[in-house]
Design brief:
The chain is α/β, with parallel strands linked by helices. The protein has one domain: NAD(P)-binding Rossmann-like Domain (Rossmann fold), CATH 3.40.50. It contains 10 helices and 12 strands. Helix 2 packs parallel to helix 4, helix 4 packs parallel to helix 5 and helix 8 crosses helix 10.
Length: 286
């Protein structure tokens, strides 16, 4: 399989590239420098030259607060950029697997969101990613995920462990609920969906919901560091307040995977323990 990966320099993109390469796929990795999704002509040129069988579109502007203060750039990258990728894919008859977000929901429910629930994003980031979903065709795949972390790039677990290892006091919100997802596990499911040529919308997360505070405590505890460094706060107590609103409850039910008989990802505590120990032992938390 010949796979073009956008966002190949990011934490998820790097895992997808590594996984596909190890599986024997012919991979065309495109980081931001190699493929500017906001430039339609460039996107069509790159995809036309590569002629992939599938495109894993992991590239996005994921700075939630940055999107709120620069909506034009958010839509240019996440919505219009995805339209360009989809157009290029149709040109070479490739299928797209697009990575979306739990932030398409407003978080007002008290039960997990499944794939057929109505969307209502609160932030520019969520609206721009939803715009990307709308750009895809019926033959393509949308993977909504949440709270992604892993060995690569900047993410919540690496930041928390770095500060805890330095003995810094931390305040973490305890009233936002979601499902942590580990990039290596997510990449595995993305490739499985691509190989199976399964179209449509899928929620893909590691299992088990938590809050950011409890997730931070679990990470610090798994790393053998001092959990007393972490103090829970409410979103309203954050100083300074964040520019972009976050859904209070964005737990994703992996209903489409479950109903289809696909294996679900492991409980998030399992990869968290492995990751925390790996980061501490290697000293690569920053």
């Amino acid at each position: 399989m010949r796979v073009l990966v956008t966002g190949a320099g990011g934490q998820l993109g790097r895992e997808v590239v590594d996984l596909c390469t190890a599986a024997g796929d012919e991979v065309v990795p495109c980081d931001r420098a190699a493929l500017d999704v906001t430039d339609r002509d460039h996107v069509l040129q790159v995809i036309g030259a590569a002629a992939p069988d599938a495109i894993v579109h992991a590239g996005a502007w994921t700075d939630v607060d940055g999107c709120e203060t620069d909506p034009d750039h958010a839509y240019a990258t996440n919505a219009l950029g995805t339209r360009h990728v989809a157009e290029g894919a149709r040109m070479v008859e490739a299928r797209v697997c697009y990575v979306s977000t739990d932030y398409v929901f407003d978080g007002t429910r008290t039960r997990p969101y499944h794939e057929w629930d109505a969307v209502n994003p609160l932030s520019v980031y969520g609206r721009s990613k939803l715009g990307g979903e709308a750009a895809l065709g019926p033959q393509d795949t949308v993977v909504r995920t949440s709270w992604v972390c892993g060995r690569q790039g900047r993410n919540f677990v690496r930041t928390i462990l770095s500060r805890a290892a330095a003995g810094q006091q931390l305040t973490v919100v305890d009233d936002q609920y979601g499902c942590p997802t580990f990039a290596e596990d997510l990449a595995t499911m993305i490739r499985r969906l691509v190989v199976a040529r399964l179209p449509g919308l899928f929620h893909v997360t590691n299992q088990g919901s938590t809050t950011w505070y409890r997730f931070a405590r679990d990470a610090v505890e798994a790393a053998g560091l001092d959990v007393a460094l972490i103090t829970p706060i409410t979103t309203a107590e954050m100083q300074p307040p964040r520019p972009a609103p976050r859904p209070a409850y964005s737990v994703l039910d992996n209903a489409a995977l479950r109903i289809s008989g696909m294996p679900l990802l492991a409980d998030h505590h399992e990869p968290l323990e492995r990751l925390a120990k790996e980061l501490v032992s290697s000293g690569s938390m920053t």
